[in-house]
Amino acid sequence: MSSPSRPIALVTGANGFVGSALVPHLKARGYRVRAALRQACPGAWDESVVIGDLNSPVDWRVAVSGVDAIWHLAARVHVMNETETDPLAAFRRVNVARTAELCNAAAAAGVRRLVYLSSIKVNGESSTPEHPFRPEDPPAPADPYAVSKLEAEAAVLTSRVDAVVLRPPLVYGPGVGANFARLLDVVRKGYWLPLGAIENRRDLVFVGNLADALCLLGEHPDAVGKVFLISDGEPLSTPALIRAVGDALGKRARLIPVPAKLLHGLLSLLGKEAEADRLLGSLEVDISTLTHGLGWRPRYSLATALAATVAGA
Description:
By secondary structure, the chain is α/β, with parallel strands linked by helices. The protein has a domain at 8-171 and 205-231 and 285-296: NAD(P)-binding Rossmann-like Domain (Rossmann fold), CATH 3.40.50. 39% of the residues lie in helices and 13% in strands. It is built from eleven helices and eleven strands. It has a seven-stranded parallel beta sheet, with helices on both faces. Strands 7-9 form a two-stranded parallel sheet. Helix 5 (178-188) crosses helix 7 (238-249) and helix 8 (260-269) runs antiparallel to helix 9. The longest helix is centred in the first third of the chain and has 23 residues, at 87-109. The radius of gyration is 20 Å and the shape is globular. The N and C termini lie far apart (46 Å). The mean pLDDT is 93.
């Protein structure tokens, strides 16, 4: 007697940083993974379909045909040096319009679940130690990217598909780029950093923990129609993170205790106020709806996650 066919998981952005971690997790759970790609490329998925440039309308019918669940990761991401004359319109075109199209196609095809990867930036740019971000907080998006992610969430949650939203903070892991990659490089080279006096609390999430939670949200019956926040559950101050990175690298972190107010003022004078806020401010999230509500626990500890990140850098 032949075995039943495996359920099909559609992953958009399957060749991205998070998608590359999610695909093997889904396959390990018994899914046949179909990657929706802007252009053909090799990968660990079982099959793929080219959907083209997300700046233009997409015909999702072939991509969603026969699919059991969708993990929608593809997006126009936050950029430091914006070149668009109308950034909000550019973000809406990819993050909102394409998401709404996907939801409509999924509903017409009878897809049972859609998991949307959003961003903690929907909650805002910084939290307080007394009030970490929670899913039920009033949204406070501060830039066009965050506005578009909030609008995409609304499109997902009001669609005719059983949908779930997950908002991660900064994601790190093997192959990470941007600011985290620069931090690894600076600590590896032994540079002195004027961050020793900072007393903040920031949450991060390892890409392996994020992929594990995404899988759960695609299956758990109590997740439907809800927004969840995620982290490793180990908030750190900026200097504590730098020391942890140093430990993972086998290097002594070199920190100078410059007062936070002075550092913020200097960075602001240099036109780097946003960078100052990330280095000096707090961003802590309450993940109890995920841990207590669905029984999820981070699979990888901070030490294990940083070791894997360093090994894959």
